[in-house]
Design a protein that fits this description.
The complex is a heterodimer. Chain A is mainly α. Chain A has 4 helices and no strands. Chain B has a single domain, classed as TIM Barrel, CATH 3.20.20. The chains are: A mainly alpha, B alpha/beta.
Chain lengths: ~110, ~350
C-alpha cells in the first residue's frame, strides 16, 4: 500500500472495479443501484437529497463527495443540501438521546 | 472583475488555452482525445448536415463580466461588428436556405447597429430571429428600456441566461445584483406577452451550472425553474435549455484556479455519449465573428479555429458547396457538447 491514508478520492472513480472479483454480484448490485435512483414515487432529485443525508449519517467520504456533486447537478440549492445534513444530524443525535430513556429507566430502577 | 484580455492573463491567449486542453490528462494517453473517441464510435470525420442556422456574434462588448463566460466578454471589450460586415451577412442570408438567425455576443444589443441589423434581417424573410439577451441590458441604460417592445415588434425569440431561480447562485456566477435585474426584465417581457401561451412570443431560459459540475436532466430542471419562478415572482417562460460549461476562456480560468480542471475534464470524457453526435450544433450551424470570419461553432470562434474550407473562411467569400464538404474542426473542448445528454445552444442533443 503506497497510500498514506485509508481514503483516496481517486478511488471513487474505481467503484465499478468491485465487479472484477465477482462480476455476477457486482452487476446485480449496480443494476439495482441504478434502478433505485431513477424517478419513481420519489423524484430522482428527492432521492439524491436523501442519499446526501444518509451519506452524512454513515459518514462515508466517497458518498458525501458523490452526492454533493449529484445534488448540485440536479439543481438542489445549498439551503436544501444543508437541511438534508441537519436531518441526518438530528436522527443521529436523536438516536443517542432517545437512549436517555433507557438510562433513566435503569437509574430509576436502581435508585431509592 | 475584468476580462482575461484586459488583465493580460495567460489564458487570454488562445495558444495557451489549446496547450492546456491538449496536455495534461490527454498527453500521456491516459484519456482518449475527442478525435479518437469519434473514430471509435465511427463518427470521424465529423461532417455537416444541411445548414439551418446562422449564429452571428455581434461583438464581445457586454455590460456584465460573468465568471464562466466562454467569450471573455465584458465592458472592457471593444470588438464589435461593423455595419459593412453586417451587410455582407445579410447578402448571404438573403440567398441561403438558412431558417434561423441567432444573434449573440457579448450583449448583442450594445452594438450600435443592432436594431438596424434586425430590421434588415426581417426584410430578408428569415423565418426566425433569436436574440441571446442577458436580460440586465434592458435595465442598464434608458436607451435600452424599450428593447422588449422592439423584440415584440419583430417577433424575436428571446433566449436569456438565468443559471438559477435564486439570487445567491445567479449573482455568484453573473455578478452582484444580476438576479434582481433579471427578474425585473423577465417581468417586463411577460407583461408584453413573452413566455405566455398563445401569444407566439417565445421566451426561453438558459441554465449553465454555476460550478464544476455537469447539468442535470433538462426537463426536471425546467420543471423546477417553472415552479419556483411562478410561485415566487409570477414569471412564466417557454423552455429551459441546459448548456454544459466548456473548459475554455474564463470557465477554464475558474477550473484551473479552483483546482477542478482535471476532474472536470475527466468527467466530460467519461460522460462521452455517441448518441449526442447527430444533434451537435456544429453540424447545422455556421458561427460568424465580429470580423466576418466563419467557424463551426461559437466555441471554435473563441479558440480562433476557423472552418476548414480553404478560401471560404470569410463571409465575403461565401461558398456553400465548399462549406458543405468541409470536415468540422474539433478539439478537446468538444467533449463539453457530447457529455451526458449533450449540449448545444438549443439545449440537449441526445
Amino acid at each position: 500500500m503506497s497510500s498514506k491514508t485509508y481514503y483516496d478520492p481517486a478511488d471513487l472513480k474505481k467503484f465499478g472495479d468491485i465487479s472484477e472479483w465477482n462480476e455476477k454480484l457486482g452487476t446485480k448490485f449496480f443494476d439495482w443501484y441504478d434502478e433505485v435512483f431513477k424517478d419513481g414515487a420519489l423524484t430522482a432529485r428527492e432521492k439524491s437529497l436523501i442519499a446526501l443525508a444518509v451519506s452524512h449519517a454513515i459518514q462515508c467520504p466517497y458518498c458525501i463527495d458523490a452526492y454533493t456533486s449529484d445534488t448540485l447537478k440536479k439543481g438542489c440549492s445549498e439551503e436544501e443540501m444543508m437541511e438534508a445534513v441537519h436531518v441526518a444530524g438530528a436522527i443521529r443525535g436523536g438516536a443517542s438521546l432517545v437512549h436517555g430513556v433507557q438510562m433513566m429507566n435503569k437509574a430509576k430502577k436502581l435508585s431509592m | 472583475m475584468k476580462s482575461l484580455h484586459a488583465r493580460k492573463h495567460d489564458l487570454a491567449s488562445v495558444d495557451n488555452q489549446l496547450k492546456f486542453l491538449n496536455n495534461g490528462i490527454f498527453e500521456n494517453g491516459k484519456l482518449d482525445s475527442f478525435e479518437k473517441q469519434l473514430l471509435k464510435s465511427g463518427r470521424w470525420p465529423l461532417k455537416p448536415t444541411e445548414l439551418e442556422i446562422f449564429q452571428i456574434n455581434l461583438g464581445y462588448m457586454c455590460n456584465q463580466t460573468c465568471k464562466h463566460c466562454h467569450v471573455d466578454a465584458g465592458p472592457d471589450r471593444k470588438e464589435i461588428m461593423t455595419r459593412d460586415t453586417m451587410q455582407l451577412c445579410l447578402d448571404v442570408l438573403r440567398n441561403t436556405q438558412v431558417h434561423t438567425l441567432d444573434l449573440t455576443g457579448g450583449a448583442p444589443e450594445m452594438n450600435p447597429d443592432f436594431r438596424w441589423f434586425v430590421e434588415e434581417a426581417v426584410k430578408t424573410g428569415v423565418e426566425e430571429i433569436i436574440v441571446r439577451s442577458n436580460l440586465t441590458i434592458i435595465l442598464a441604460n434608458p436607451k435600452y428600456h424599450d428593447l422588449p417592445d422592439f423584440f415584440k415588434k419583430h417577433k424575436i425569440r428571446v433566449v436569456s441566461s438565468l443559471p438559477y431561480y435564486k439570487k445567491s447562485k445567479t449573482d455568484r456566477q453573473r455578478g452582484d445584483g444580476v438576479f434582481d435585474k433579471s427578474i425585473r426584465a423577465l417581468t417586463m417581457l411577460n407583461e408584453l406577452g413573452y413566455g405566455k401561451p398563445e401569444t407566439g412570443l417565445v421566451l426561453d431560459l438558459v441554465y449553465n451550472p454555476s460550478g464544476a459540475f455537469l447539468p442535470g436532466d433538462q426537463l426536471s430542471l425546467e420543471n423546477d425553474f417553472k415552479k419556483s419562478l411562478l410561485a415566487e415572482f409570477e414569471i412564466t417562460f417557454n423552455h429551459l435549455f441546459t448548456i454544459t460549461n466548456l473548459p475554455i476562456s474564463r470557465f477554464l480560468e475558474y477550473l484551473v484556479a479552483s483546482e477542478n480542471y482535471e476532474d472536470y475534464m475527466e468527467s466530460l470524457v467519461m460522460a462521452f455519449n455517441p448518441l449526442t453526435v447527430d444533434g451537435l450544433m456544429c453540424r447545422n450551424t455556421i458561427s460568424i465573428d465580429w470580423k466576418g470570419f466563419l467557424y463551426d461553432c461559437d466555441f471554435n470562434q473563441m479558440l480562433e479555429i476557423k472552418v476548414a474550407a480553404k478560401g471560404s473562411e470569410h463571409i465575403s467569400a461565401w461558398n456553400i458547396d465548399a462549406l458543405a464538404k468541409r470536415n468540422i474542426m474539433t478539439n478537446q473542448h468538444c467533449f463539453g457538447c457530447t457529455a451526458g445528454a449533450g449540449s448545444s445552444c438549443q439545449g440537449t442533443t441526445a
